[in-house]
Amino acid sequence: MPVDPADFRRALGQFAAGVTVVTTHDAQGRSLGLTVTAFASVSLEPPLVLVCVDHRSEAHVGFRHAGLFGISILAEGQEEVSRRFAVGGAAKFKGLELATGSTGVPLIPGALAHLECRVSGTHVAGDHTIYVGEVLSAEVRPGRPLLYHDRRYRRLAPGEEPEE
Ligand SMILES: Cc1cc2nc3c(=O)[nH]c(=O)nc-3n(C[C@H](O)[C@H](O)[C@H](O)COP(=O)(O)O)c2cc1C
């Protein structure tokens, strides 16, 4: 018997996740990006991560063209950035200052970590494509993460101090 879609969504919502913005660019140098919680580490040697991107996303053209993408792991004060990148269209970049990584991918300033990746595998899975990325550079800054659980943004509880 197929799983009830509402039950499926509710169950997935119980998985507390960090929040990332995944970015790339197209042939004209236009930045593309979206909010992604479907991010995971895959391998340490070689360093690999994955992100799952909905087939409706505009960003696929950038993944294909650039063969590169950036992942910005958002800090707890960046809920507005997450909301901005969860909306379709180019307006999300309006008035936003971006950083540029060593590979040329756009990145979100102020994020807790930046990963720059080369697409090393692409797997169509249902209505999403899984991009496996070989991590070319990783940069970290101290701070607390933005979290997402049960359809709401969350923060680490006071006292749950991340190690510096
Ligand atoms: C908290 C949160 C997590 C999300 N995670 C994903 C995800 O993992 N993969 C995905 O494709 N879309 C995810 N989305 C939805 C996209 O961010 C949203 O559809 C966005 O508008 C796509 O932008 P685009 O169509 O301009 O590429 C998420 C949205 C929110 C609010």
Number of discrete domains: 1
Would you identify the regions where 5 or more consecutive residues have pLDDT less than 50?
Answer: none
Strand content: 35-45%
Inertia-based shape? globular
Q: Which architecture name does CATH use? A: Roll
Measured on Cα atoms, how large is the radius of gyration?
16 Å
- CATH topology-level fold name: Pnp Oxidase, Chain A
The overall pLDDT average reads 95
Task: Please give a structural write-up.
It is a single chain. This protein is mostly beta strands. The protein has a single domain (15-150), classed as Roll (Pnp Oxidase, Chain A), CATH 2.30.110.10. Helix content is 13%, strand content 41%. The chain contains three helices and twelve strands. It has helices spanning 5-13, 60-66, 79-84; strands at residues 17-18, 20-25, 31-36, 39-43, 48-54, 68-73, 99-100, 106-107, 113-125, 128-140, 147-149, 152-154. The strands form three sheets. A seven-stranded antiparallel β-sheet has the order 3-2-6-9-10-5-4. Strand 11 (147-149) and strand 12 form a beta hairpin. The radius of gyration is 16 Å and the shape is globular. The termini are far apart. The mean pLDDT is 95. Bound molecules: flavin mononucleotide.
